[in-house]
Amino acid sequence: MHATPADRSDLRADCSQCFALCCVALPFAASADFAIGKDAGTPCPNLRDDFRCGVHTELRTRGFSGCTVYDCFGAGQKVSRITFGGRDWRAGDPEHRRRMFDVFPVMRQLHELLWYLTEALTLPAARPVHADLRRMLEGTERLTLQTSEELGQLDVHGHRRRVNVLLLRTSELVRAGAGRRKKDHRGADLIGARLKGADLRGASLRGAYLIAADLTGADLRGADMIGADLRDANLTEADLTGAIFLTQPQINAARGSAGTRLPASVTRPGHWTAHV
């Protein structure tokens, strides 16, 4: 269980404690994000015997930028060390491998929900629903500690829907504090949109498609970013201070600069230096 509501250390990927599950369990297709394609359950050809990536420092230059934006929210080490007790997929029979690979994406979804719930509990404006959020956090944590058989049968989509009711209420409470009319762009198609300098304070961008959008200098303070697709979005000089439900994978997929202001929960990607 998390030590404090603000503690998300166990929701950050620790590849040294994982059996490279994202490099094996998940499929990817040859595209702008991946130089080659592979099937689910098939090890990436770049994977070494010690479960490390042989081209980790050259992923972008070798055409594997998709790997650099992925994050399992700590699900990899949970499945590797707790669900399967440190028994890796190479050591088991085909059924062991199948169960491990099936459980990993389920655990990843649960850990993503834990990330959001933990953040929601740090938001003073969401205090009216803190008790419900705490119960949901504890219940979700219990689900992650189930057996592989139980996790394989879990209705994770149904659980996401229940969590989302609380997250939506949290968003409404937090954004109401801005004291102004909020823009609702939930699920909006903003692909390639020209939003340079846009005032999006307290806006809902839940599930919005912001692929390659120009958000240079945009004011996104207090905006709800849950599920927003920021691939190749230009966040140069943008202000995301206080933006809620923003994750590292979203930031990793975007472009930014030294002047981009980010919440403390995410870190500035190394590849952004090219856009300073």
Describe the structure.
Helix content is 32%, strand content 0%. The radius of gyration is 19 Å and the shape is globular. The longest helix is centred in the middle third of the chain and has 27 residues, at 94-120. It starts with 64 loop residues before the first helix and ends in a 23-residue tail after the last helix. It has helices spanning 65-68, 75-83, 94-120, 130-144, 148-152, 156-176, 248-253. With 276 residues, the chain is mainly alpha-helical.
How much of the sequence lies in strands comes to under 5%
Distance between the termini: 39 Å
Structural class based on helices, strands and sheet pairing: mainly alpha
What's the overall geometry? globular
Average pLDDT confidence is 92
Low-confidence stretches: 1-5
Order of helices and strands: HHHHHHH
What's the total count of β strands?
0
- Which range best describes the helical content: under 10%, 10-25%, 25-40%, 40-55%, 55-70% or over 70%? 25-40%
- Major pleated sheet: none
Q: How large is the count of helical segments? A: 7
**Measured on Cα atoms, how large is the radius of gyration?**
19 Å
Short structural summary:
The protein has seven helices and no strands. With 276 residues, the chain is mainly alpha-helical.
